[in-house]
Design goal:
Length: about 270
């Protein structure tokens, strides 16, 4: 194609889920979603899912998951310098990435998360600080540098995120939305928000938008009002969700009833405040 930016709309990489990337990113997938699984994750950690199977509720499952991750990736809180003078190497943690995303999805932590979604599902980001519509560009080079940042890219961080996704999918099917293939979520945006590429014009009623490869929604329409003049209502496949409120102990992303999901093309019902 002669139009580089248009060509990047369909620029995808390989994935670890055994489905064509174009299928995952499509409106048709959202209309008829199927389960997704990252190859080899559950098979590599049978002990975790054996422990989870014995849980009688999400409250207990959260504790089991947290304890397993602390043990498997040595994430337990380290002794303070007051009581232990031995130097400690910073260990990347999935929790630190989620906290960083909560403050700013265009942070270094956000770039690592987008890089994980790109690596595992083949979906390329469309925005990180600036629109990533041309390659090579300063925006793309900045994203590539941050997604591979040594600050957070250690301690098997992608494997941690793999387990978070698979745990999330297990929790959805067992406790949260066991009989649903998709759920209704909302996102507040501004008309010219670069993180949302509109196919055609953004108008009231049903239209199609393309979200970046990892995107935040909320379970509360009222909370969506706080983030933009346009409210986009979308049916999001549960198989695209990597985080939902109450999935983990503590208040991570809880204040905004935030759901993190894979992006791509979505049919939305748009309304203007």
């Amino acid at each position: 194609m002669s139009d580089v930016s248009h060509g990047l709309q369909n620029w995808n990489s390989g994935n670890l889920i055994g489905l064509p990337v174009g299928r995952i990113a499509s409106v048709e997938f959202n209309d008829n979603p199927t389960p997704l699984a990252i190859a080899g994750v559950r098979e590599s950690h049978p002990g975790l899912f054996r422990l989870l199977k014995a849980c009688d509720g999400l409250k207990r499952a959260r504790v089991v998951f947290q304890q397993y991750m602390e043990t498997a990736f040595n994430l337990a809180p380290q002794a303070s310098a007051v009581t232990d003078s031995t130097p400690h190497r910073f260990r990347s943690s999935y929790m630190k990435l989620l906290e960083g995303w909560g403050f700013d999805s265009n942070s270094v932590q956000g770039a690592v998360l987008k890089g994980w979604a790109e690596s595992r599902f083949g979906l390329s980001p469309t925005f990180h600080k600036v629109a990533l519509d041309r390659y090579p560009s300063a925006g793309w080079l900045g994203y590539l540098e941050e997604k591979l940042s040594s600050q957070f890219h250690n301690n098997c961080i992608f494997q941690q995120l793999d387990l978070l996704y698979e745990y999330c999918q297990w929790a959805i099917s067992r406790f949260e939305w066991p009989d649903q293939k998709s759920i209704l979520l909302w996102r507040g945006v501004n008309r010219h928000e670069e993180q949302t590429a509109t196919v055609g014009q953004l108008t009231r009623g049903v239209c199609i938008v393309k979200f970046s490869n990892l995107v935040s929604f909320t379970t509360s329409r009222e909370r969506a009002d706080e983030f933009g003049d346009w409210i986009l209502e979308a049916r999001v496949p549960v198989s695209k969700i990597m985080y939902f409120p109450d999935l983990l102990p503590g208040a991570t992303l809880a204040g905004e009833n935030e759901v993190m999901a894979l992006g791509g093309y979505y049919r939305v019902d748009a309304s203007y405040l």
